[in-house]
Structure formats: structure tokens, C-alpha cells
Design brief:
By secondary structure, this protein is an alpha+beta fold. The chain has three domains: 87 residues, Phosphorylase Kinase, domain 1 (2-Layer Sandwich), CATH 3.30.200.20; 183 residues, Transferase(Phosphotransferase), domain 1 (Orthogonal Bundle), CATH 1.10.510.10; 134 residues, Sandwich (Jelly Rolls), CATH 2.60.120. The protein is globular and about 80 Å long.
């Protein structure tokens, strides 16, 4: 098969029980794609055709609906009597399965960052009314060839619940080793089932083994319902107690003690990452740290997670020592900044006009004002400062929704500054 629909098929890159995945190309968009083609007649299988049809149509229903940097995007789908196929974003790096053995484990910090990104992506899906229901290493992909670097993307939403909570079939959908107690009991499911499954993935990434070792699926189900796994730190000495606690809470058998929301899970992961990771150069900060910092700023309160990840990608991070002039009065400017850490002072003719604290932006008038705008004051570091720099060109090239949120927040900042200036004038 060299072509299907408008897509050229280059070579086979994967094969499963129901389909073959090809590396293909879309001549119209000039991009590589992954094309999942169902085996002929598989959807009409007398025994499991109904299940296979459900899985295939489930993914087809998500065309264009999950646009997130850490979710594999589905571009197109065709389902008819002659052939059925899905066209997806091509992700070249392989799956997390390659780093799930004791001899190929990632660093603890890298593992936490991967799980953090998964948690935010699954929260995005949940807010869109989607529960994945089959989270496992085989469904999480690396974007690059080096597992120690680059991004990840969650794939395979065939088993997903779309819309209202639903029941599941133990033998029909999902992988028993990663199922929550509620899923193996065929109970109604919500986001807490995916939280449990991601907890299992985290356990495996940290230790190189599954939390429950079983001879068959029935033994696995029994242990998921009744047994408690060993602490990850008992299997790997460099795992801190904080991560033991996070894994235990994510995998709690009782819903009332498991993480109730993805935000709670992500918050604890970010805190554990900060507590463990040594101070590094700002340009070496992990994406997790950058995202968590930006998300905490009131300026970004109305930005979606997708837009925050976009800002992470195009922003530049640096440090400034006390006394460093970050902006000089009268200079031309083509960038603005946020203060991510530390304290700055705003000076005019040597007099202090204002002090800037963490989360505040500055320098934006040179970007949003008229062309060739000049700086109106000096801004100097009072303490060691961590800065987030965004150029005018990066802002212009950002997505329309991201750019709109920047200008909306700029207006709010300017309004606050005018109000504060009026108060000072009245008081004076």
C-alpha cells in the first residue's frame, strides 16, 4: 500500500492487534503524519467487532478537539465499508516503555517533569470532558530521540470516556496492570481513575518495575484491590520520601484519600521538584519550573495551560545581580520582562519611582506603544533577580489567543498603575 486517501505511506512503524501504523506524509500541509489503518474486516469481527468499532470511532471523534502540546493531535479520520484509518501527529522518539527497566531508568528529576507534563495534559483533556482510561508507558511518547531531553505526548484515546462518566469492561478496554481499583470493579469512573494509572506509571518510571507483580490478570486484579505495593524508595535509594508520598496518594485505593484533582497532583510534583533540584543556571531551568512560575503570576490568570506552555517555549530566562541595569532610560526597546524572583527598583533622574516584586511585568510600553518607543525610566536590580524576557517579535508570532490574553493583561496592569498614580497624587 503506497497511498490511502490523500496521504502517501512511506513505511510501517508499528503494528497491533487491530491495525498497522505507517509513517506517511500530507502533500497539502507538507508535514509527516502517522496513519493508523485498521485491518480489513476487523470492525466486522463476529466476536469483538463491536469493541474494535468503539475504540476506532472514539479516536475518530477527537479529530481537532485536543490541541495541546503534550497530547498527540488527531488530524483526520475516515471510517467506511472499504477501509478505516486515522491520521495523527507523527512523534518520532518512541514510548516510555524504553525507560521502564531497572537498567535504563531516567533521573528522578526527569521522571517528575514527565509526570508533571502528563498531569497537566490529562487535566486539559478532563476539562474537555475526556477521561483517557488507558494511561500506560506504551501510550506516552517522546518527541525526540534522547529520553533525557525534549517533550512528551500522550497518545491513544481509543479507550477514552467522552462526555458523562461511564462504566468499563475489564477484559475489553485497558491494561490490567495500570487499572484503578474502581476500573477493575467496573464502577463508574472519573478523572481519579487516570490519576491512579499515572501513579502506576510514575512508580514504574522511578523503580523499573510495576507496583504489583502477578502471574496472570486475575492475580493482578486481586492485588490491585487488596494489596499494598512497596515504597518506591525501598527499590531505589535516591528516591526522596516526598515522592513516596505522592505515589502513595495517587495510587490510594480509597477515592477519599487519592488526589481528587489533577491540580493537586501537579502542585505536589512541582513542590517535590523544587525541593530536590539544586540551583542551576536559569537557561537550564526545566520546563516544569518555568510553567509553575508563570502559572503562579496573576498576569497569566486568564491564560489557558496551552498558552502558558507556549510562553514557556518562546520566553528567555536569565539572572541579574544586584546593581545591574536591566532597562535604561531613553533606550529603544523591543522586549518586555517579568520578574520571576527578587526585587527591582524603577528610577527617573536618580529618584525611586517604584519597586517591583515577583510576578510583575515591566518594559511593555516599548512593545505595545508606537514604533521606535523609548524607555521612560531606569530599572535596576536591588537583589539577585530571575527575569523572564519576551521579545516583540515572539509576541507577534504567538498564537492569536495567546497574544489577545497578553494585551488583555497589559490593559489590566496599566489600569492598576493609573489607579495607584491617582491615589498617590491625591495623597500628596
Amino acid at each position: 500500500m503506497e497511498k490511502i486517501g490523500k496521504y502517501h505511506l512511506d513505511r510501517e512503524i508499528g503494528r497491533g492487534a487491530t491495525s498497522i501504523v505507517y509513517l506517511g506524509s500530507d502533500a497539502f500541509t507538507q508535514r509527516a503524519v502517522a496513519v493508523k489503518v485498521a485491518f480489513p474486516g476487523i470492525l466486522k469481527d463476529p466476536k469483538r467487532g463491536r469493541l474494535y468499532t468503539h475504540l476506532f470511532l472514539n479516536e475518530a471523534a477527537l479529530v481537532g478537539k485536543l490541541s495541546h502540546p503534550h497530547i498527540v493531535q488527531i488530524y483526520d479520520a475516515v471510517v467506511d465499508d472499504d477501509f478505516c484509518y486515522l491520521v495523527m501527529e507523527y512523534v518520532a522518539g518512541g514510548t516510555l516503555e524504553r525507560v521502564c527497566t531497572a537498567d535504563r531508568l531516567l533521573s528522578v528529576e526527569r521522571t517528575v517533569e514527565i509526570v508533571f507534563k502528563c498531569s497537566r495534559a490529562l487535566d486539559f483533556a478532563f476539562r474537555a470532558g475526556i477521561i483517557h482510561r488507558d494511561i500506560k508507558p506504551a501510550n506516552i511518547l517522546f518527541t525526540g530521540t534522547d529520553p533525557d531531553q525534549g517533550d512528551i505526548k500522550i497518545s491513544d484515546f481509543g479507550a477514552a470516556i467522552i462526555g458523562s462518566p461511564d462504566r468499563t469492561l475489564v477484559l475489553g478496554i485497558g491494561s490490567p496492570a495500570y487499572m484503578s481499583p474502581q476500573q477493575v470493579k467496573e464502577q463508574t469512573l472519573d478523572q481519579q481513575t487516570d490519576i491512579y494509572s499515572l501513579g502506576v506509571v510514575m512508580y514504574q518510571l522511578l523503580t523499573g518495575q510495576l507496583p504489583f507483580q502477578a502471574r496472570n490478570s486475575y492475580d493482578m486484579v486481586y492485588q490491585i484491590i487488596n494489596a499494598e505495593p512497596r515504597r518506591p524508595s525501598a527499590l531505589r535509594r535516591d528516591i526522596p520520601e516526598a515522592l513516596d508520598a505522592i505515589v502513595a496518594r495517587a495510587m490510594s485505593k480509597r477515592l477519599e484519600t487519592r488526589y481528587a484533582t489533577w491540580q493537586e497532583f501537579a502542585h505536589d510534583l512541582a513542590q517535590a521538584f523544587r525541593d530536590r533540584k539544586p540551583r542551576v543556571a536559569v537557561d537550564q531551568l526545566a520546563d516544569l519550573e518555568k510553567f509553575d512560575s508563570l502559572r503562579s503570576f496573576s498576569f497569566f490568570a486568564d491564560f489557558s495551560d496551552v498558552e502558558i506552555w507556549e510562553v514557556v517555549r518562546f520566553s528567555q530566562w536569565s539572572r541579574a545581580s544586584p546593581g545591574t541595569a536591566i532597562i535604561r532610560d531613553g533606550d529603544h526597546g523591543d522586549f518586555f520582562c517579568f520578574l520571576a524572583e527578587g526585587e527591582l527598583k524603577v528610577l527617573k533622574n536618580g529618584l525611586i519611582l517604584d519597586m517591583l516584586a515577583t510576578g510583575e511585568c515591566f518594559g511593555e510600553m516599548a512593545v505595545i506603544g508606537k514604533a521606535n518607543s523609548r524607555r521612560g525610566a531606569d530599572i535596576v536590580a536591588v537583589t539577585d533577580a530571575k527575569l523572564v524576557r519576551i521579545t516583540a517579535n515572539a509576541l507577534r508570532c504567538s498564537s492569536e489567543s495567546c497574544r489577545a490574553h497578553f494585551y488583555q493583561s497589559f490593559l489590566a496592569v496599566l489600569s492598576e498603575r493609573l489607579t495607584a498614580a491617582n491615589v498617590r497624587l491625591v495623597t500628596f
